[in-house]
């Protein structure tokens, strides 16, 4: 264990002096609860399992899980923390707890030795961004394959069109996922970040990458087809999907199951994806439909999708349905990847 003084927010914990203070005033804690908080602070940013609490705090004395639950409940009350929107102690269901606020370790003479867990936060930043990129890229490839199979005319060149669409949408999904993932990851560096910060981070990442992706997409479509729709998906659509993924990532913050992340991400993404066309925006299907309409001699046809949904062409109903499907795939892949990446933080 670290022998110095831990500082976080308004609090200081002196291990040698067995004293917790807030703004210089003592905070009352029992001996075991003090040890539990010291353990959490020493492992800032890392999962502390229930077994570790039992071994290092209760030192092998047989107790029930309720004893640990009561300990954490008391610590939260004394720190002014909220289990529903934690600033200090995060619950990892069925596994343990993690201290999530920035912590500094000070030497006995009062000089700052180092921020506890700082390397882990940077590791988490790159890990979260990479997980977002992988999830977004996977969703992009799936979308490109779906539209490539459904929209290609049964003629020579259909396989080439499928490959081109998958390459394009995979690259755009990779870029979009990275932007949203790094946007969410960056909020971990905001002091006392609350629930709205991951949503804001995802939204800002989506805005920036959406604008960049639109520029790249327009250039790519002009190069491949000689024409590109001016109203294709961009910053506003990226902000909506990014905010939805940020919200889903926050809602799934306590789950250790990838299936839980997939479900929450799918629901949030589907709702955002359906709402975007209703508000006049365009996702991948809408952008391809605009391209097909403005370039009728291409091998790109979306009428088959429209017919499945009872429309003569790729109309509003088709755009809403396929927008929901695109959002579902993007949200599920993104949040599922983020939840899975947490395993490497522990």
Description:
It is a single chain. This protein is of the alpha+beta class and 346 residues long. Helix content is 60%, strand content 10%. The protein has two domains: 5-116, Orthogonal Bundle (Arc Repressor Mutant, subunit A); 119-345, no CATH class. The chain has helices at 31-42, 50-56, 65-79, 118-151, 158-186, 196-225, 235-251, 258-278, 284-294, 303-308, 316-341; strands spanning 5-8, 11-14, 19-22, 25-26, 48-49, 89-92, 96-99, 103-106, 112-116. The protein has a six-stranded antiparallel beta sheet, covered by helices on one side. A three-stranded antiparallel beta sheet has the order 5-7-6. It starts with a strand and ends in a 5-residue tail after the last helix.
């Amino acid at each position: 264990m670290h022998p110095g003084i831990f500082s976080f927010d308004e609090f200081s914990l002196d291990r040698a002096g067995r004293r917790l203070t807030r703004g210089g005033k003592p905070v009352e804690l029992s001996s075991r609860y003090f040890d539990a908080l010291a353990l959490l602070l020493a492992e800032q940013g890392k999962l502390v399992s229930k077994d570790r609490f039992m071994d290092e705090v209760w030192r092998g004395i047989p107790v029930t899980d309720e004893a640990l639950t009561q300990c954490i409940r008391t610590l939260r009350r004394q720190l002014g923390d909220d289990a529903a929107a934690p600033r200090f102690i995060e619950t990892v269901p069925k596994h343990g707890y993690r201290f999530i606020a920035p912590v500094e370790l000070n030497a006995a003479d009062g000089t700052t030795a180092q921020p506890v867990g700082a390397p882990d936060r940077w590791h988490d930043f790159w890990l979260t961004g990479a997980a977002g990129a992988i999830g977004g890229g996977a969703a992009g490839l799936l979308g490109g394959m779906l539209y490539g199979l459904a929209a290609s005319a049964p003629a020579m060149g259909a396989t080439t069109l499928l490959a081109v669409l998958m390459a394009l949408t995979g690259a755009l999904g990779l870029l979009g996922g990275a932007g949203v993932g790094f946007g969410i990851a960056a909020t971990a560096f905001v002091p006392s970040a609350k629930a709205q910060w991951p949503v804001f981070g995802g939204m800002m990442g989506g805005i920036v990458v959406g604008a960049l992706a639109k520029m790249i997409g327009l250039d790519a479509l002009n190069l491949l087809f000689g024409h590109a729709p001016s109203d294709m998906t961009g910053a506003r659509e990226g902000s909506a999907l990014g905010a939805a993924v940020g919200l889903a990532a926050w809602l799934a913050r306590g789950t250790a199951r990838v299936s839980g992340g997939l479900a929450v991400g799918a629901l949030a993404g589907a709702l955002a994806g359906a709402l975007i066309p209703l508000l006049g925006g365009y996702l991948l299907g809408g952008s391809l439909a605009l391209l097909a309409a403005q370039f009728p001699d291409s091998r790109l046809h979306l009428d088959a999708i429209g017919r499945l949904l009872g429309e003569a062409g790729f109309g509003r109903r088709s755009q809403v349905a396929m927008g929901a499907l695109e959002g579902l795939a993007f949200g599920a892949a993104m949040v599922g990847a983020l939840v899975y990446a947490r395993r490497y933080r522990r």
